[in-house]
Amino acid sequence: MPFRYDPGALGPQEVEISITHCGICHSDLHLISNDWGISQYPFIPGHEVVGTVAAVGSEVQSLQVGQRVGLGWQSNSCGVCEWCTRGMENLCLSAEGTCVHRNGGYADRVRANLRFVIPIPDVLDSAQTAPLLCGGITVYNPMRTHGVNPSSRVGIVGIGGLGHLAIQFARAFGAEVTAFSTTSEKEEEAHSLGAHNFVNTRESKAMKDVAGTQDFILSTANADQDWGAFIQALRPTGTLCLVGVPPSPISVHAFPLISGLRTISGNPTGSPYRLREMLDVAARHGVKAQIESFPMAKANEAIDKVKKSKVRYRAVLAN
Ligand SMILES: [Zn+2]
Ligand SMILES: [Zn+2]
After folding, report:
1. 155-169, pLDDT tens digit by residue?
2. Residue 73 C-alpha to ligand 1 middle, in angstroms?
3. Ligand nearest to the CA of 269
4. How far is the CA of 29 from the centre of ligand 1 (A)?
5. Could you say which ligand is closest to the alpha carbon of residue 90?
6. What pLDDT score was predicted for residue 116?
7. For the residues 228-255, what does the mean pLDDT come to?
8. Which ligand approaches the C-alpha of residue 47 most closely?
């Protein structure tokens, strides 16, 4: 049954978006089942929104009605703290999630603060771009933070919703890209996405062969891994960065971290500035999500398919 709500008067710095597309992100599934203990029902999930500006508040000058825009995980922040003023709004302690304690994008309309409503370059396809608003920035931002460049050797762990985007962005940065997967069936796919090398993580010899070869390893996997083997795969000064959430705590030996100045890190989404930059990079380098489309009214069906990992690689709802 459709859920209706009255959002009230449009705030002076708010933008109302008429939604054309919304990607399904795994965070939506976690919110739906209250895995993080923060969900308040009823709510509308969805935080990979593409649409057009339907209305703007009285103080909004930078966006016009009818303009194509996107909205990701974050819909507002305090705007005045150290992190907001440093352009790192994604670290703001008062950050507002687009569908956390409010209603998100599996809908006709959604609202957000103007700073988080991002214009979309004309050449980008709306459906293929929706997953970039959360999935894309989640893998793009750490590569920028850790200075991935043409001299970098980058490993991507997991070839799924996040990983297939990460391979494309790493390639766009000019890095040598190695895809790590538990299944050799993904090898051809990894190469077609732009990976130079492929390693089956279940083959211990293959993992030993890549010891000391990677500058930056981005783990998109949400299953437990042999983290020690990935630390071993890093070159001195290398970083293992997690954006997927494995169920168990990460246990590694300290010595390889100490001896090689290696780091374990994580990354939460990205700032509005980085979102704009990422969309520009996607437009110029042809980075796009591989998607399966569903009508908005079939959201439950789509969620079910995502839960069963039957979507290659991101599901997108369309109005
Ligand atoms: Zn997300
Ligand atoms: Zn702030």
Report:
1. 999 999 999 999 999
2. 6
3. 1
4. 10
5. 2
6. 98
7. 96
8. 1
Return the percentage of the chain with pLDDT > 70, whole number: 100
The one-letter amino acid at 153 = R
CA of 110 to the centre of ligand 2 (A): 22
Query: CA 3, CA 70: separation in Å to the nearest integer?
Result: 23
User: How far away, in angstroms, is 234 Cα from ligand 2 center?
Assistant: 34
| Distance of alpha carbon 81 from alpha carbon 135, whole angstroms | 26
d(CA 14, CA 119): 15
CA of 94 to the centre of ligand 2 (A): 6
pLDDT over 90 at 2, yes or no: no
Q: In angstroms, what is the span from residue 91 Cα to ligand 2's centroid?
A: 7
Q: Dump pLDDT digits (tens) for 121-167.
A: 999 999 999 999 999 999 999 999 999 999 999 999 999 999 999 99
Q: Considering every ligand atom, which ligand is closest to the CA of 105?
A: 1
**164: nearest Cα among 156, 152, 172:** 156
Angle at which helix 135-145 crosses helix 163-172, to 10 degrees, equals: 40
pTM over 0.85? The answer is yes
Residue 209 CA, ligand 1 centroid: distance in Å = 34
CA distance linking residue 294 with residue 101, whole number of Å: 25
Asked if 154 contacts 216 with a C-beta cutoff of 8 angstroms, the reply is yes
> What are the tokens at 128?
């293929």
Q: CA quadruple 91, 135, 262, 281: dihedral positive or negative?
A: negative
State the Cα–Cα distance between residues 241 and 143, nearest whole angstrom: 9
Report the residue count for the chain: 319
* Alpha helices for 101-150 (secondary structure H): 126-129, 135-145
Separation of CA 135 and ligand 1 centre (Å)? 6
